## 1
Amino acid sequence: MIMSASWNQLFFQTTLLLVSCRHISTKTPGPTPAPLLPIGPLTNLVKTVEVRANESHTVELLERASVELVCKWAGNENKPQNVTGYWTKDGSEIKNSSVTVQLEKEQYVLKQMFTVLNETDLGNYSCVFGNEAKAEFILAVPQIGEKRDKPIIGYANDFMVIQCKIDDTKPVPTSWKWARMNGTEKEPIVAAAESRRYKIEIEERKTKLFFHKMTKADAGLYSCGAVYAIGTAYSQVELKIITFWEPLKLFIGILVEVIILVAAILIYERSQSGKQCTKENGPNPDQRNSMTQEENNDEEGGSAVRQRKV
Amino acid sequence: MPPSAAADSACSPPDGGWGWAVVFGAFISIGFSYAFPKSLTIYFKEIQEYFCISYSDIAWLSSVMLASMYAGGPVSSVFVNRYGSRPVVMAGGLMVSVAMVMASFGTTIMHLYLCVGVLGGLGLAFNLQPSLTIIGSYFHARRPLANGLAMTGSPVVLFTLAPLNQFLFDSLGWRGSFLVLGAIVLNCCVAGALMRPVGQILQPRAAPQSLSGGELSGGVPTDGGGKSQSCLRRFVDVSLFRHRGFLIYLIGNVIMFFGFFAPVVFLAPYAKQQGIDEYSAAFLLSIFALVDMFVRPATGLVGNARRVRPRIQYLFSFSVAYNGACHLLCPLASGYAGLALYAVFFGLAFGMLSALLFEVLMDLVGAPRFSTAVGLVTVIECGPVLLGPPLSGALVDIFGEYKYMYYACGVFMLVPGIFFFVMHYYNYKKLDEERRQSAAVVMRTSEEAA
């Protein structure tokens, strides 16, 4: 639920009180009917950002929270006394969020408290100063860092493992879920039902999807989701299935090339007369060998005769 | 009957002609041996998720592959001594291919360990040793250049495999990619086909092939149906352990390898810790690889220069010490520009060292015994190579900072560098003395005969 600025102070104090008392059971006051608040305290997060034209900051949220977003702007050359500021969510202006901001200590400060209760409350929030400057806050669940842009290649009748992992620096998700993308629709994969085809293994930060025996029908986009209290982070991976014929073609091609080359070299050699042992020394006979060359010449004559007899 | 590698080098090396085709074959072969394990790391994340295992489990795959590759060294040497380079490289290529194809149908991680790790690693070992050996039989005067060019295969193939692997992974997943990689690795068989044996005449040889180390006992016997004595000697050439040059090389290398690979592994994480973003940190590695790529053939050229060649051990010692100095100064580098400069200098140092690494061994023990020598060296180096990065990682974990690791790596490379300088000065003196002595003996016997 989004609170208007006029209720801001009141709610802030109420929240603090409630947090310190460790139970929340009141409804949130506001212009629109409020949903039932869940049991459990809301974590308080204050994120301050200084605006410098199109800056964007990501705020990671795991569970329901109350977030205060603060925008500071140094102003332009004119520096009027008042500036109108408002907030937008995902591009469209939030109703009743427009306020007049006073110039304090050479800057304009725009604050707003937002409660994030479910996945729809996440998104891109922007503060706008009178159509001149704005900053963006991306409220989202922790993203899965490892992006796989290249498809995974699997072979028909082979087994395969697809893995999704969340960084060690990010918090552990409550659970994982897998789905198969059919166009834009997600078809969830339930391992228990089709246990002959799939198996899902879940460790805290990792999840693996096993395919026991793949067929061409298994090719496509798969998405793994890290489930947090507030929402799910997705990562997609493409699986391509090929048969062994593809690499085999290349293998046979290269094999043929090798056979041709080897045959050519051996035939060329046979067509030339057998290489005789050259008796002349090279242009620079090394001193080390000069002695042995002489001895060799003596030996060669004798052994050659012996050889011919054999 | 296929001639053995030892017999090949009894013929005078052509130093050109078909040798350059062999260098190209070695380039491919060596490139795959070094770059293949590194490039597989792209698939680790997906395989880890697929089999539901931890990161250290999948990292074991790299270690098993590397261990298998290094431990397979002596086995590879035995086969090369017996059958020559060509069949071994082709067999190696086939082994890795079969390993990858089998792995693409794998159902457990153990399956992958055995196929890619053990079999794949062994196959790569069968690629590495013979490639190095055959260069020694084709080149003598231009050998440093040939070695430098062949070793350039490692950064070039890595540069090509990395984006290729990414592309395969995006279009085919890890299974399909392993299958296609199995085919790509078959190109090692093409490289093997290029490794035509030099000379077709088998010949036994009693005289030593090199005077290094003053070891005047016989070299590796080469007739096919040898006695049991020669059979044993073929497996383990223990006489190498009495070879002065070989010992110097071995001791220095074992210490050096503790600090060799760790700085490469930790360059990107160090950069990220300094606050540099992931892409710029990866770009540092690209700078390093690019510099490495050009420095290797350049070092080969330098090593071939008339003044440098007779004293090439000093160049190697310098490159080892230079690596050490680079790492010791690394913590002084600040900001991205400093690290980029470090990457350039490190690339220079790493490339120089890699280009000369096997050339100096060939120079010390001579081409015929090189195969056995390199097998022994790789199996002994297995330890430091595998322990180096985890130990450095432990240093980083204990101190929480990378600079102590760099200091340690710097020391581990500077000390062997100085050791090499000193020992080779002494070794060269001894060799000159021995050569003078045996020249005097020959003169005397020829005078007596006349």
Note: Chain B touches chain A through 55 residues (CB under 8 Å).
## 2
Amino acid sequence: MPRDVDMEGGGKSDWVRITSVDGFSFMVLRKVAMGSGTLKNMLSSDSNFAEALSGTCPLQERAVVLEKVLEYLAYKNTYEENGSKDDLEHFEKRVPPEIALELLMAADYLES
Amino acid sequence: MLDVARHDVKPSKTLPSLVLCCQRVLNANIDSISGLGPDMPHRLVKPVLQGCSANTLLRIERETPHIIEDNEEIWKDMCYRTYPIITDQYDLLEREVPLSWRDEFFILRDAEAKRLEEAGNRIRIQRLEAEELKKQRQVKFTDRVPPAKRSRPWFASPTQPKSLFQKTRADASKLQKSVFGPRMLPPMPASKGFRPAFASSGATLSFGESTTPVHVTTITRRVTSATSTKPIGPPETASKRKQPDSSADHRHPKSPPPAPVIPEQRMQPKLPAPTKKDPMASLFMPKHRAHSQLPNAVRPSHTIR
């Protein structure tokens, strides 16, 4: 049930929209997006970035890459909550080598 | 999808960052990397490049030229890793550090390849030689009779039963031939000189040894025919020599005394030497053949008493 974030900043279950350069948009929980330092800064209410107001972050990444990034963020969010009790499934297995290079660059940019 | 080697410590407390994950994936697929792209920061790719081979690194560098300057360190590490002994020498001997580790690496690689090739060649040659030796010892099948070492046309070879007596005879005959060898020569080229030599030898005989049983009487007639001093010399000396010793034989002087004075003086010192020899030997070995100055038409005859 994605719904746009309120202009006032909303609660914890806010969703943010991340758009890719080729027109795809992804909705993720704000909490998840905060896993990325860059996104966090972009969406923070403290800053005056336009993204913070609109709750949407247009990134200059391909959708494929972006999807993987967000997948990682979700994975990260999930396992951080659990406190690593479970056997982590290595995310490396989920990274297709074809995009690994671009993913690397995106990950670096997003400080994840 | 991927089989990632779990060489890293499994992060139990913290999740591996996406960056780290990506780097691991890239490491696993290094050989598939063709290029990096213009934006790739070096620090991100460094751990990946350090783990790749020299060929891959070279390929990547070709595709991503902007990263070359950052790769010097990587090349250095590669040098140390691949050729530890040689590169260590740089520290030990304090040799000048190569400006380009990259080039150095390839120099080392070529040198290594050459050394391996030489060693391989050496081993190969040794092996071939050993095989050759072995082949020579092998039993070969052939329908050709090998060449006989010694052909025997005669059943009783004359050289075989060589008794001691025969050997000594053979040696003696050889010696005789060698000793009397020169005798054969004079008659051929200078037969003319041979004759007067007889006269002189005959003269020496009578001059030196009065006790010899052989008395040689030489009658020379050539004095009258020749007018030059040459023919006069030897017979006159012969006659002159006889004069002091008139007891042994008789001889008629044919020339005036003053003429042959000079040759006489020359001849005299040489005469005593051969007279001491065996008369029989001197008969066959005219020593004064070279000194004879007689012409061609002289034919003296001598008789031996």
Note: The first strand of chain A starts at residue 15 and ends at 19.
## 3
Amino acid sequence: MDDDEVPYVCQRLRLYYSDLIEAAAPPDVAQDNKTVPLTLICGFLGAGKSTLLKYILTERHGYRIAVIMNEFSDTADIEAKSIGLSDSGGAAGELAEEYLELANGCLCCSIKDPGLASIEKLMKKKGSFDYILLETTGLADPSSLAPVFWQNSEVSDIYLDGVVCVVDGVFGLQQLRGDSSSAEEPGLSCRQVAGADVVLVNKTDIAKAADLDALEGLIAKVNPTAAVHRTTRGHLDLAHVLNLAAYTSRPHVHDHDHDHGDAATHHDDLHGVSSVILPVPILSPDRAERLERWLQTLLWENKLPDGSAVEVLRCKGVWGTVEGATCVLQGVRSLYEITRDEQRGWDGGNGKLVLIGRGVGAVECIPLE
Amino acid sequence: MTQTCQSSSCLNGNPASTLQCPKCDKLGIKSYFCTQECFKASWAVHKAVHSKPDTVEEGTYNPFPSYRFSGTLRPAYPLSPRRQVPAHIPRPDYVATGRPTSESKPHARTIQVLDEEQQQRLRVACKMAREVLDLTAAHIRPGITTDELDAICHAAIIERNAYPSPLNYREYPKSFCTSVNEVICHGIPDQRKLVEGDIINLDVSLYYNGMHSDLNATYPVGKIDEESKKLIRTSRASLDAAIAICKPGTLVRDVGKAIEPVAKANGCSVVRAFVGHGTHIYFHCAPDIPHYAKNKGVGVMKAGMAFTIEPMINLGGNWEEIHWPDNWTATTIDGRRSAQFEETLLITEDGVEVLTAGAPLNLD
């Protein structure tokens, strides 16, 4: 499979949702006013993603959650596929399985993702969900899916809430370093961590404490912006995977053991993927424009001012302006958005801009002059 | 999806509304009004919607009888048999399988800069498409079917030794798109006769000498009401406003900023799901150009880039779309009308060249 092809991951999807039986009444049009957060769940092979998802589905949490499990690897084949319906009818939270029928050619010239369109169609039939979790296969690169869903927020009630990566507490260190015989391509593990907003380190009940610490240390280097939680058999506080607002809220940057001051903080790269935390001074309008143009070259042309190649997988930032506004940067792949908040004010001092990706090690500073 | 009051003379500024006209509801049409007073005030105009849905022509049928159409337009099947293209005319790569796989490869997903030779070939294909659109549009009149228009368009294209790009693109069955009244885009030519008072968009794309060109325009059928005239003028004006900002250095994401204010100022909304697109070697390629403001569009315009801008403008506040079960026809969710205009543009050293340019809009 060509890694560079834009994947149509939602070719064949199985949809599970809790509380199916309750939703007997056809939905009201007025109900459609609600926006619905969608979380992408990725993870290393064998890390325990499915267990986590089953836990979310069966736990009595009172939410209507749709879990979409992608059983087949992403493909650029865009033919419509429709699959049957089966009803498992369990105890706590009825589990119903439904396959999504996919739209066909009508989505040409449309930026609406076909999978998303099918989910919307289903919600119209079955009523709105409180959350949607979309599982990507162990081989998927979340940073290639996140932009699709993030951009689709502009045309849909479904918006990208965040990306969760499940890491194997026992084998994760080896998988990240790439020195295990696991089937997964080592660089891909790093990319999955790089694109995540939340990392769940699973199987902590059977992993060695020292390994877990080393693993978390490595994760923080590749991605200083992700929140890391330890879990056992996928048990965790749902607040860690739902309502992340990872693409709208002010990002948190963990650079605990570095006093960055005015210099960039680099981390060694792991299979080409690394991160850099850059200080951002309080910006005048001119400098703000230069920052944005530099960012555009980085994200849209994949190159640094000196011409060297770069591939930014995720970027986040927060800084202040001379007018006293707070600016928040969110970006994934070539998409980015800078939002200004005049009300918030800025409490002085340098802001931060984090780049995660390939080749970011060469970035020393933001050219603001 | 907020439903807003659909009255064009709303007394309260078209706020979000949940009250529905009961007659419409019985007919399966969704109509929203903010208050009983507003509803009463617009009754004289509104009640026309309750008249019998477009009767399907003698010998034709509606293939989706249980579908809840948002307006009064109905498909009139059967579609005519697939039209032939003479063997000597070169086909685009997707015609054999119906699948444009090359469009998902990196080359098509990177904004290309055309050299002089490519630009010239594109220029020729665009001029040709404009000719075909104009001559097809000259046949618009009450009583002609959209299928007859398709036959005319198809004949004109193959006569010029070009291929009608839509034909079998993702298995699209006809040679161009005819979008009537509440259809936003991708209407499939069928046996329905045009009726005086309709508006119709014709969208022509052709492939000639290795280049795709793409343009569309909305036309009146006989005499149309003032509201439809306003809609058509607003759509054209919004496209012109976007073209005016196109030059090297303009951000793709700013195109929507030029379009949306024009629509809003005229009580209309901008459709979000469908975007302008690169068109040259590929029918649809990078950049994707949203028509609404505040978007995350990628790219900066540079000389040599070629793409379309094609705003779809709906009367009222609802920008959303729904699809007929034919998987192509997109309509407004409230049955109100939608209009569109499209040109293929080439960015030049200091501005933009409208490759598909034609005569200015004149509705009088």
Note: The interface with chain B takes residues 2, 4-6, 29-30, 32-33, 76-80, 103-106, 108-112, 150-151, 154-155, 157, 296, 299-300, 334-337 of chain A (CB under 8 Å).
## 4
Amino acid sequence: MLKCRTVWKKLAPLARSSSTLCRQNVKRTGLNNGRIPTCVPAANMSTGPGGLGGDNLKYTIMVGAACVGSLTYAYFLLKGDQKRYQERIEEITTRSQRSSKEEAATVQSEPPAVEATQTEAVPESVPEAAPSPEEPSPPAAPAEEPAAPAEAAAPSETTAPPPAADSTPASLKVPSHTPYLLIGGGTASFAAARSIRARDPGARVLIVTDEPDLPYMRPPLSKELWFSDDPSVTETLRFKQWNGKERSIYFQPPSFYINSEELASAENGGVAVLTGKKVVHMDVRGNKVKLDDDTEISYDKCLIATGGVPRNLQVIERAGEEVMKKTTLFRKIEDFKSLDSVSRNAKSITIIGGGFLGSELACALGRRSTESGLEVIQMFPEKGNMGKVLPEYLSNWTTEKVKREGVKVISEALVKSVTCKDDKLEIHLKDGRLVKTDHIVAAVGLEPNVDLAKSAGLEVDSDFGGYRVNAELQARSNIWVAGDAACFYDIRLGRRRVEHHDHAVVSGRLAGENMTGASKPYWHQSMFWSDLGPDVGYEAIGIVDSSLPTVGVFAKATAKDTPKAATEKSGTGIRSESETEDTATSPVASVTPLPPVAHKDDYGKGVIFYLRDKVVVGIILWNVFNRMPIARKIIKDGEEHADLNEVAKLFNIHED
Amino acid sequence: MSSVRQEGKDKIIFVTKEDHETPSSAELVEEDPNDPYEERGLILSNGEINWNCPCLGGMASGPCGTEFKDAFACFHYSKEDVKGSDCLEQFRAMQECMQRYPELYPQEDEKSSSKTSQDSTEESGANSTSASEQDSNTSQPDTESTAES
């Protein structure tokens, strides 16, 4: 439509001038069928300009040429537009491939697309390497199919490991067999590796990950690392724990692991990590997998812990490369590094998403904003922060706290479109509001990675996403799934999929136990936690969904009841508030005044019970710490309690 | 006195300290000490060592895991008057191994128990409680297990 308009605009002057000339000629010649006169009878020449036959001819030729010229121009313009449109569509569908490869259009980027197409097209019989050279042309064509985004998403997982670093380990021999194969190198995988090694003496465990990093923990990327005083934190990736001790986000230093070549021969076994390699095909009958470089690894037991990929907003994906360049999808170490550098240079950052990640990043950046003058905006469709988790009254209260951290919160915001103008992003909301910003962070959820479902013949859950597994985390014989990608059956709470750190640890450990013969179901309930500024910290367990009826029991708050105070007093539970203390006392008004003691609506600390059919299925400990075992017990019992105030007494919320 | 308010489906109760002073009438189900599904502490009910206890951190799974297991198992089953005095060989082997990986096993002290607590604090970047870490030998694994990575 726009194109037509631009074309018309271009043509209009020409059209107008040529039409007036035409009309003049028509009038002169007396013709009124609109045909361009090619020959003007000299007799009908009247008082036109010039009034000579030669001039008339000139005009006719000019008009004719102008019309032909304009038609030709219009034709080519439209053709060009169509071609650009086609290219644009192709570009969009292959963008995720390119963006993750950066400049490196190496052989490595070809095989992922190749293998991804193969997994879609070829059934279980393991395709030989021969068909693969023919595949490169089809990927260009299927790039336009709707299936493409899924495939594009698959290679997008291959981060931009410097191809040089990957090609040198080409000399690294990939073991052809491993007793324990763990696909994915995150928290769940590491927990499983540890569990296997603890239970099976001398076990040989191979972790295959497409990231360039060894296994690391994710929560500090949106929490502690932002509060570090160390300017080189993006390099060291070290943070201070609740107990003051510093540690790296990596679970273990590189010396913990053995080289994959040594895996088979190591006397006492060990854990080897193969980085920068993606498993693209799984042959369940043959008990083997194929990597993106065509090597095959056979296994005895396999764990799939592939986690997920951050979701993006459709409006951003459609908005073009300029917008995508200024958008961060936050999940990995490289995202942390890039957002850190953006936050030092940009004037304004907008976070889209009001859940855990969005709110934590907003608070972290909001704290930075007090020092640097950075504008931090957070927008989401719900009414308040954590709107899908906390009951409305608490969500509203939390939103006020987030605002005090220096964040401009725009609630009930639905993004209609995003454009890039004058090197700034313009976010148009559906209700007409316009937000101008330099950079966007999209924290709108996680898409579980189920790329191997097709080739392995594994079931994918339609309600929660992820691989469907039983209560013992098993998908099929010899295949288990843990972490974000596992949709499992919780004996107490029903089928669910959990995307929290502790769940990754618990489920990874359980999967490791079951891979070594334990046959235990998911029983130990995992928990999660979040801090939003110095005043709001909570731990939670079970199903914590704001659509469930809740009962909240609160104590009247005093100054003593904040994460800050809890750290100082008992040195427990809180994540690095001890060093945020130091930064907070700098002359900036990030210290909020004491909550008024007698105020009725002050939710300083308490317990919130989430009920389903009168049974407590979820509990939030609001600014109350060290009580998780009691909460876990209540959920495990699964009893109907007549008076939840009595249950709340068990938590002793008035004490520290 | 406590105040109760209802906001739609959510009930909000404010309580004072006095309100909560009386003991709770809520009933909790009795724990089964032999529940096979429960997370166990360091020592299982049959007397064996639970190598997968989060309290051990990465000790049993690292490069020196085998040496550690030998030494600790020997210590655990030792019937000597000075417990573990017959396990010097295993402890020496473990120490030798650990010296080869100073990054993983900082050479601050040699006792395996204090090493485990240190190691486990190193590895728990998540929310955890220091108090219960000391109780590694009791059946209070809950907070640790969730805290351990």
Note: The helical segments of chain B are 65-77, 88-99, 112-123, 130-134, 142-147.
